[in-house]
Amino acid sequence: MVLTERDRCKVFNHIGIVLFLYIIIGIGPISASVLSVKNPSPKSYTCVVGLAGGTTKAMPGEVSLAHNGVLFLDELTEFNRATLEILRQPLEDRRITITRANYTIEYPCSFMLVASMNPCPCGYYGDPLHKCTCTPGQISRYLAKISGPLLDRIDIHCEIQAVPFNELSKMKPGEPSTSHRERVIKARLIQEERFNDYKNVHCNAQMTERMLHKYAEPDEASLDMLRLAMEKLSLSARAYSRILKVARTIADLESSEKVQSQHIAEAIGYRNLDRGDWAERGI
Ligand SMILES: [Zn+2]
């Protein structure tokens, strides 16, 4: 069966709702690598051309090879900062323009970015079993490898704690992934219906500012919470929009017609690295 572009968009949208940044504590080799669904062999890249594309033959880079799929960047902080910065245009426009001396070319690159990183250079910050040997200054410099504007464009920052070995056997099985899948598909169908009259908009992540006002307008209580979060966490206007989009998705997962204050609160909770006090938090 050959999937049309719209079918592939639907499949992609069923897989993912928003962007993720995972912080995996104390595991993983210290080397940057890229993995995309259409190019599943992990590659080590620290150069702009590898990620963005634009060799002498104007070949597409990993961001375009991951079009309508998932782009996974392992050990995000090990990438060269200039390399990571090229993600800003693709994450915003879902297209990338490459200009070289003898050509200018544009490639599509609508992908879901998933990335992982350690919480500090030694990898043990916040680990209950190991002592982190990094100073607050070292941790701050480590996190500063990811620029504020790039961080702004990542919807969810999620901390994952290592589970001690003796706890693993006591853990009860959680909600099975089949029921997760059903909830996600249901939420995706709600979004398909919502954006039926819009061209090239299939999910909440693609909403414009005007759509946000129409479909994710916060109530009075939520507005107060957002105002406080903006002031306390120094959130940008972009982060504000992203919070509303994530809140809309959380509401869809609960089949809630309106975005309510608990949805906004949960979405604000996912802006973990925006707070700027990571190195002093002692998680
Ligand atoms: Zn450390």
What is this structure's SSE topology?
Blueprint: H1 5-15, E1 20-24, E2 33-36, E3 39-43, H2 48-52, H3 62-65, E4 69-74, H4 81-85, H5 88-93, E5 95-100, E6 103-108, E7 111-117, H6 136-143, H7 148-152, E8 156-160, H8 165-168, H9 177-194, H10 209-215, H11 220-233, H12 237-253, H13 261-269, H14 278-281
Parallel strand pairs: 1-7, 1-8, 4-7
Antiparallel strand pairs: 2-3, 2-4, 5-6
The structure holds zinc ion (ZN).
Question: What does this molecule look like?
Answer:
- The protein is of the alpha/beta class.
- It has two domains: 39-154, no CATH class; 177-192 and 200-279, no CATH class.
- The protein contains 14 helices and eight strands.
- The protein has helices at 5-15, 48-52, 62-65, 81-85, 88-93, 136-143, 148-152, 165-168, 177-194, 209-215, 220-233, 237-253, 261-269, 278-281, and strands at 20-24, 33-36, 39-43, 69-74, 95-100, 103-108, 111-117, 156-160.
- A six-stranded mixed beta sheet has the order 3-2-4-7-1-8.
- Helix 11 packs parallel to helix 13.
- It starts with a helix and ends with a helix.
Brief characterization of the structure:
The protein is α/β, with parallel strands linked by helices and 283 residues long. Helix content is 41%, strand content 16%.
